[in-house]
Structure formats: structure tokens, C-alpha cells
Amino acid sequence: MIKKPLRRAILEFCNRYSTPILFARLQATAAGPRLVFGIAGTDAAASLRALAALAFEDAFAALDVVDVSSADGVENLEHLFGQGGEWLFDPTLALRRAEAAAAAANALRGEGWTGRIGFEPKRRIFYLEDTAGGAWLNQFQVLLTEEAGRRGAEFVQPPQVLPALPDAGVPAVVDRLSCRQEVSAPAGRFAGFRFRLKPLIAAILGLGFLNMAQPAAAEPAVSELNGKLGASGGSFDGKGSGIGFGSVTAPLGHSFGLQIDAGAGSIDSNAYWGTGAHLFWRDPSVGLLGLTYSYHRWHDFDFGFLNPSNIPVVADAFMHRAGLEGEWYLSRFTLSGRGGYQDGTLNGDGYGQLKLKYYATDDLAVQATADHFGGQNLIRGGVEYRPNLEVLSGLSLFAEGGYGSQDYAMGQAGIRLYFGKPTTLIGRDRRSDPDSLVPEETNAFVQQIKNMRSNQRYAVSTAPVGDK
Length: 468
Fold this sequence. Notes:
Blueprint: H1 4-16, E1 23-29, E2 32-39, H2 42-56, E3 62-67, H3 77-81, E4 86-89, H4 94-110, E5 117-120, E6 125-128, H5 135-150, E7 160-162, E8 172-173, H6 176-180, H7 197-208, E9 226-236, E10 239-252, E11 256-267, E12 270-283, E13 287-305, E14 312-330, E15 333-344, E16 349-361, E17 364-373, E18 376-385, E19 395-404, E20 408-419, H8 425-431, H9 442-454
Parallel strand pairs: 2-3, 6-7
Antiparallel strand pairs: 1-2, 1-4, 5-6, 5-8, 9-10, 9-20, 10-11, 11-12, 12-13, 13-14, 14-15, 15-16, 16-17, 17-18, 18-19, 19-20
């Protein structure tokens, strides 16, 4: 076992590394713990080895990097991943499932099975060669499910197990003993496979996404219960503001999540507060689709003189919105949008938003946002940076500025503190919490209320009624 800070550092290293790391594994040796990383490509392995040595070599008895695309002497899933140890990083659970397959094969042999076991990655099917009857097939499927559950890597859909070899394609050998069996009909099916790594890599990926009905559901919509707190200050059209806000996000089963947002503060020396909710489906490799609702209230707003009697109107202004939101993940770009219907003190109308976010690094995001609401427009640009501090790894800094209809201008800056499993900024945005509705929608609310005031026929008039 290793201490939690070191474990978190390894996870952070794997998440931040520019080339996808397939796994990080801790193995026990007589000399002490050995840390092993897996990556595809000779050059990638060399670069990873150099950086990993600088970061972790002093903490372990040995450190190794495996190039899984050209490893020598690897014949089967068991040889590559079934040699014992503890998985520290396995983002798709593919390696735990590969280990479960090898363990299930060994357990089946313990019950008397003597044939070959293969896995065809293209069809995502296990094959038991020379099987008479279905008892062995059913038993292997039971063992496979049990072993995957024991490792916390349950298959989203139970894999198929068939009694013959496929008509086409080269299956990956699951365990060591299958490599030692004599080749049987159809002749040569396993011949020449022992040191071919491409089928093995394809098999690993097949085990990572073994779900015929939902092929991309390997990762949950929300990685775990998490939250964030923040504070911002600045100006809304020349009026000072300060707002504190927070969110809590929880998984609802595997593919859905719920987030609650809230915030409160002061705008132009008057109290403001708001709340919001998201109910969403998300696949971290594809995007998000959900429902949203929000409510915002600005206390004791001076609407000016709304009638010829010059009686000033001071009242609470409020807005509520209900609509849809969506996100599409395109490598380092995220294209997102929101739209729906709004009502309240302002006139009921539709609203829409389009946002493009680019992650220059895993912890530096720049974005451009276009909003349309109540016949008005607002264009904003912003940046968020997570410095990855050792003491406060979840701390980020952000700033935003914008310009809208009727010369409306705004500028805000602040901090956020994320809670939950340590990860990068891009990792949080796609696996933890969507962008909050509070204070995200505060701009639209304030702009509409202030412009509504300035558009009133008798607004801010100090002249006598007869002089109008």
C-alpha cells in the first residue's frame, strides 16, 4: 500500500499527461513496491519513462514503463495483465476486466475445463473451443461476472460466450494454458498468434467497452459525489457586485446526474440571490443533454418613475427560466448551448446561449459565449486557470468580460474551489459538474432589468410633471 498523497499524485500525473496512459499498476516485489505504467508507442514510452522517473523514481523500489504495442514475449491477456498487483489508474476499467477474464479462465480450469479460451474483440465474444453442451459456457459466464464484480469492473452488458471459434478474425488468447493446447479444428486458428500484440490491444479495448447495446457507457455520467464553492466580484454596467456561489453534483445511476446550484450577494448595493437545478444524461466521451430550471431575485430595485405622477417604483425584480442544455465534446473543444423560456418581472420570452470552450492545456480553458434573451444580445469572453497547487489542488481562478445591447458592459473575476476526486479542469468539466446556472445567468437577468428601467417613458425624471 502507498500513502494517499502519493496515490493522488500518480492519478493527477496520469490525467494530466499529454498522451493517453493506459494504466498505472503497483506491484509487490522482494525489494519493495514497483510502479508500472502502460502506454502505446516506443517514443511515447521513452518520454513517459523520463518524466515518471523525475516524479516518482525516489518513491519506489523500481519504476517501469511498458509499451503495450511492442512488448516482447506477451502471449495472452493473463500474461500482460494477470500477474497480480493493484491498479492505480485504469480509466475505462478495461484492464480490470481483462484481469477478470484471465481469473475466470483459471477458475474454469480448476473445475475441469481443458480446452482453449479466446476473445474476439471485433465481435466482443468469448469462445470456448471443443465444448460439448452449454454447461461450461454458462459456468464461464457466471465466473466472468463474479470476477468482474470482485474487482469493481462489472460489465454493463453480460458478454456473450459461444462454443466455437469465429468464422473470421483472430481471437486473443485469454490465459496461459490456452497457448499450450494443441491446435484443433479449424486448423491453425490460433497458430502464429502467440507474439502478436495487435489482437491483444484490440481485445483490451473490447473489454473496456463490452456493451453491445450501449457501446460508449464505460464511464459514468458523474464520477462521484462532488461540489464546488466560489466567489466573484466586479461590475455589471458600472454597478459594483459581489456574489458567492456553490454547487453539489450527484450521480443518478450510471448515465444520469443531478446538480443543484445556489448563490447570493449584492448588486448595486441591493441584495441578490439565485438557485438552479440540472437533470442530465452524460457520456464523458461524447457529451451531455439535460433539463434546467433557475430562479433569480434582485431585491429593492429602483425602476424609476413608471407613470406621469412621478411616483418612484422600488420593488423586487425576479426571473425564472426553464429549458434544455447540451454539450458536445470534441477533443479539446467543448461546444455547448442552452435554450428555453423565461418569465418574471421582465416580459415572457425565449432565450438561447451558445458557448465554445477550448482547453489550451488540461488546466487552462478559454471560452466565448453568445447570449440572446428578451430581444437583447450579450457577447462574453472568459478564461479559467487551475494552478494545481499542492495545498489546494482544486483551486481555480477565472475572469470574464462582455458587451451587450444598449451599451451594456460587464466584467467579473473570482475563484472556485472544487471538491471531490482530484483531477484536471477538463476532467472536472466532463466527468464531474456542468457549468453552474448561478452566477452564469446573472448577466442576462441584470442586463434585462437595467435596460427595462432605461426604456421606461418616465424613467429617472426629476422634472415636474407639467414640464414633460
